[in-house]
Write a structure and sequence with these properties.
This is DUF192 domain-containing protein. With 159 residues, the chain is of the alpha+beta class. It has helices at 2-19, 56-61, 143-146, and strands at 40-43, 46-53, 73-83, 96-102, 105-113, 133-140, 155-158. Strand 1 and strand 2 (46-53) form a beta hairpin.
């Protein structure tokens, strides 16, 4: 009996809503999601917007296969421990400056690392710092000299 009354009430509600030519559905309010802020790095008073290579998959891919980087853009490789990581220009289409970072400071710079199209993987030039580092920043070739970036410069991270 109660289910019959419920069914009649439901049908009556549908009839009333249909006769008004308008059905209003309740939707829960969605909270606005804040836009994800792009990570920023500041070196020598110059800011770069960076992509984070913070997983093994992103680190293996790096910037390979891309056509370019934004003028003040880069890719920051974040490692869980300090090590003498090796980099190469496999499948790269543009030259880079490789900035080796240790304890929040520029440690070394490999300027103007060139792509090597057609070179076998086993013959590609390997870039490696002289000591262990915890982060590596790749930027457009020439960026470090244009912005007077040198070993010892402080690197500030805003994620």
């Amino acid at each position: 009996m109660a289910s019959r009354k419920f069914l009649i009430l439901l049908l009556a509600s549908a009839f009333i809503a249909a006769s008004c030519n308008q059905i209003v559905l309740w939707k829960p309010q969605q909270q606005a999601q804040p836009e994800e802020a792009q990570p920023i790095i500041e070196i020598g008073g110059k800011e770069l917007t960076v992509e984070l290579a913070d997983t093994v998959e992103k680190q293996l891919l790096g910037l390979s296969g891309r056509e370019s980087l934004p003028q003040n853009g880069g890719m920051l490789f974040i490692f869980s421990e300090s090590h003498r990581y090796t980099f190469w220009m496999k499948n790269m289409n543009f030259p880079l400056d490789i900035i080796w970072i240790k304890d929040g400071r520029v440690f070394e710079i490999n300027a103007n690392a060139q792509p090597e199209p057609g070179v076998k993987d086993s013959e590609l030039k390997i870039f490696i710092p002289s000591q262990a580092v915890d982060r590596v920043l790749e930027v457009n070739a020439g960026w470090t000299s244009e912005n007077n970036i040198n070993p010892g410069d402080e690197v500030m991270f805003r994620f």
